[in-house]
Amino acid sequence: MTQAPTQRYARVLSIAGSDSGGGAGIQADLKTFAALGCYGMTAITALTAQNTVGVSGIHGVPPDFLKAQIQAVVEDIGVDAVKLGMLHAPEVVEVVAWAIDRYQLKNVVLDPVMIATSGDRLIAAETVQVLVRELFPRAVVVTPNLDEAALLVGHAIGGIDALDGAADELLALGAKAVLLKGGHLPGDEVVDVLLERSGARKRLASQRIASRNLHGTGCTLSSAIAAHLALGLALPEAVERARTYILGAMRAGADVLVGAGHGPLNHGFAPVPTHRVPLSGG
Predict the structure, then answer these.
(1) Which residue has the higher pLDDT, 3 or 246?
(2) CA-closest candidate to residue 220, choices 89, 18, 30
(3) Are the C-beta atoms of 192 and 153 separated by less than 8 Å?
(4) Are 229 and 140 in contact (CB under 8 A)?
(5) 181-208 b/e (C-beta count within 10 Å ≥ 16 → b)
(6) Which of 242, 231, 246, 281 has the alpha carbon at shortest distance from 107?
(7) Residue 186: which pLDDT band, with cuts at 50, 70 and 90?
């Protein structure tokens, strides 16, 4: 007789766009989940024709079919954490907000994907306001880079000294916590700021890694945060562990040639076995 299962995997759902080049989006999310020992699932919001040089086309998935993907996954397999990526249209944002409420999804990490590494804009202007209104309050953390943060707060962020003020402004938009990524600022040191609604503020600094292979860094970091939340870590530790992972992936991929433009990270530089948790864990 087959023994009844007593364990399940730590489960993470990515609701995001597909990157045909494999470096960002859904593809980077799945690689990250697997590398960190989580079982990854997807609900694809859009297809992109994309490579290391740029984005040549975007084909949105109908909102009803996005909803069907989410329902199929959540109602059968279940979800411990959610990573939100490319949500290109207001009706797509509204489906995601509905799903979070309908299924009481927890550990939602919102990466407000607006601009690709190549500089291509990936979100319609009218979507930004809906994204802020509907998803900032529903996410446990929002993870904009400097360009996305500037778009959200309505002005440029001039330097490291301006990061704290910008994080305050982002929190005021309704977020529970903000991880503002300062990697686009000049200098040998990269500084990120984690600000929580409780007032807890943490600066995370690391030496800049010289590499052209930085495509998908934002997707990877937010996915790594979601994975660590799914494994039961509190937000500050999840962020620190995610930064450690992405720095390792950047170093491991820095000297590899993939395509003619911005290549990917080495997501699988130090994989771990898929984590199991007791079925009683939810």
Answers:
(1) 246
(2) 30
(3) no
(4) yes
(5) bbbebeeeebbbbbbbeeeeeeebeeee
(6) 231
(7) confident
Residue 91's CB is within 10 A of a number of other CB atoms, namely 15
Question: Residue 60 carries which side chain, given as an amino acid letter?
Answer: G
Gap between the Cα atoms of 190 and 182, Å rounded = 6
Name the nearest CA neighbour of 78 among 104, 109, 44: 104
- Please tell me the total number of residues recorded for the chain in this structure: 282
119-157 b/e (C-beta count within 10 Å ≥ 16 → b) = eeebbeeebbebbbebbbebbbbbbbbbbbbbbbbeeeb
User: Per the confidence metrics, is the pTM higher than 0.85?
Assistant: yes
Most confident of 94-108, 157-171, 172-186: 94-108
Average pLDDT over residues 152-164: 90
